[in-house]
């Protein structure tokens, strides 16, 4: 029968099996702080939560004005340290960053309400077609996460969903002005530290691939309106629209990128950033050259985002997961899937510190 004793911020758990083999597990309830991520140490039974610098990311502070520390959970600190050493040894010239957009680069909660996604914020100025797209969402979204449908069948369903949605955007007369107005009115914001991360990676010449099954034109507009600047090292791998001279949507470029093919294979489908956003010259804009960068820092908010690096023969990948909600039920699966898991809609400052320690000035 298990027995648990608490003292000094540590739970000591004793458990004996039928053969009287005793397992002792120490679980620290006091967060451990490290001046440097490279000073990580681990115990084979350690489940301590590791705290990196940064604060919980909230726009509307609570009445006490208190910002809780952002917790980062590391399941295997020895493996993480080996990966960090490998990235540091190879240098920034071998690194690329692959990031999901919604709820990864952007905040999950804003003023106590769920932030909008880049796809969900779109209002095409035609209520009839907005309603039709919402009906498609209600039908297909449960199928996307159904445990009883095979991946092959889901892929067909997602292609069907995305194709119908894109057709409705064209038929409903979506304009580029409607995109601008939708973004301006949207409840969407970047995590604290995202700008610092982009600046640091740009300084180091590290390409950033933003993967999204949504719409590249909307993501670009969010970057314009919310960050008010461009970054030459950023490329968006997403569905891109084609507008006529009057600013009306007429078609989409390339093959459709949906939730189940959002990975390195999609690089061949994606168009580069618009010129006005600071398109990339040379190696960063070349898919083949990007693939030669065989170390990956992957940022995502869903376990499925780990597939974004599929198709890339990487040497070392450090995966960072943002567990924004439903923490109690999801922590174990996230901790086993990602190298680092940030909890409670954390800021991006921990990732900024990680990169700075990888490649100090």
Automatic annotation (TrEMBL):
- Which transformation does this protein catalyse, written as a reaction? a ribonucleoside 5'-phosphate + H2O = a ribonucleoside + phosphate
**Broad class of enzyme this protein falls into:** hydrolase
What are the EC numbers?
A: 3.1.3.5
Write the record's keywords in alphabetical order, separated by commas: Hydrolase, Magnesium, Metal-binding, Nucleotide metabolism, Nucleotide-binding
> Where are its TM segments located?
none
Q: Name one GO biological process term.
A: nucleotide metabolic process
In Gene Ontology terms, what is one molecular function of this protein? magnesium ion binding
Pfam families attached to this UniProt entry: UMPH-1 (PF05822)
Cellular component GO terms, alphabetically?
cytoplasm
Query: Which SUPFAM superfamilies does the UniProt record give?
Result: HAD-like
Q: Into which family does the record put it?
A: Belongs to the pyrimidine 5'-nucleotidase family.
* The name this protein goes by in its record: 5'-nucleotidase
Name the source organism. Answer: Cucumis melo (Muskmelon)
Which gene codes for it? LOC103489365
